[in-house]
Amino acid sequence: MTSSSTTGSSTSTAAQAVSTRPGAPPILTVPDRPEPLGWAAGHREALRALVAEHGAVFVRGLGLRDAAQSGEVFRSLAGSLLPEREAFAPREVHAEGVYSSATWPANQPMCMHHELSYTLEPPGLLLFACLTPAESGGATAVADAHAVLDELPDELVRRFEREGWLLTRSYNDEVGASVAEAFGTDDRAAVESYCRAHDIEFAWLPDGELRTRQRRSAVVRHPATGARCWFNQIAFLNEWTIDPEVREYLVDVYGHDGLPFNTRFGDGEEIGEDVVRVLNETYERNTRREPWQAGDLMVVDNIRTAHSREAYEGQREVLVGMAEPVPATAVVNP
């Protein structure tokens, strides 16, 4: 009786402390700079309830200082953390399951996407910790996947529901994640075994380059609520989202079929620039953003909520943990 009353009181108190305003994610302000791990352990259920309600919650005033402490808080809130596989860009590993943000040019935004939505078991939960905010920009913005789906053109949604989407990748040691960074090994037999087990078509070119193709669902149902969600990385990993000068350079160097990553309709047809523009404009209309402050924590429902990283200036250090894998069979739209 005491336990449930305490949990209920904690949840109610946390809910009252959450501030919401148009264009920003909910922010839970923690008073008096508590000991982070103790606070996380005592407020786990309350915070998780807020994430279930809102899709993403900022926690401000927790004062996270380093990777070790952030990892402890991540595990207290989410349990065990996941190793990343099939990364599209390199990350620095700070501790088991605790990574740097993906390596990406600071002057180029990473548009809205759902982390590892092209895998067979994407993480259901993401945890971010800001150790050093950028001098300007650099927000990790969020967007509600159900609202995005509702605003997209019906015909486009129906096509992606029928066909899914196709991710093509060409691995090299210059742009994006290498084979070893993506698969945790560069042993050909191990990479091929992984691809077969995860429904990834693969081919080795004469020069040793690996190319892969994988078809995934674009619309899924949330495993807890059943709500339909736009869940993919169609826009983010498409050639038309890349800065025009960078895209032109990559095509010149690697050829159109050799781009480090690209997306297509599920039947293999190219996705036009107009479609990518519609997707990104719809995301932008539903984007909520809050500038990072040092010590901030953000917890995100990765199925319900897309996230981005905006362009920035100066040094920026944001850590990420991934947890609670969701088998694709549990969320694929019927």
TrEMBL record:
Keywords on record: Antibiotic biosynthesis, Dioxygenase, Iron, Oxidoreductase
Cofactors required: Fe(2+)
SUPFAM superfamilies per the UniProt record, alphabetical: Clavaminate synthase-like
Biased amino acid composition, Low complexity: 1-20
One Pfam family from the record: TauD
Domain TauD/TfdA-like: 35-321
UniProt record, GO biological process: antibiotic biosynthetic process
Origin: domain of life: Bacteria
Gene Ontology MF terms: dioxygenase activity
InterPro entries from the UniProt entry: AlphaKG_dependent_hydroxylases, TauD-like_sf, TauD/TfdA-like
Stretches of the chain forming a coiled coil according to its record: none
Region spans: Disordered: 1-28
Protein name: TauD/TfdA family dioxygenase
Upper classification of the organism: Bacteria, Bacillati, Actinomycetota, Actinomycetes, Pseudonocardiales
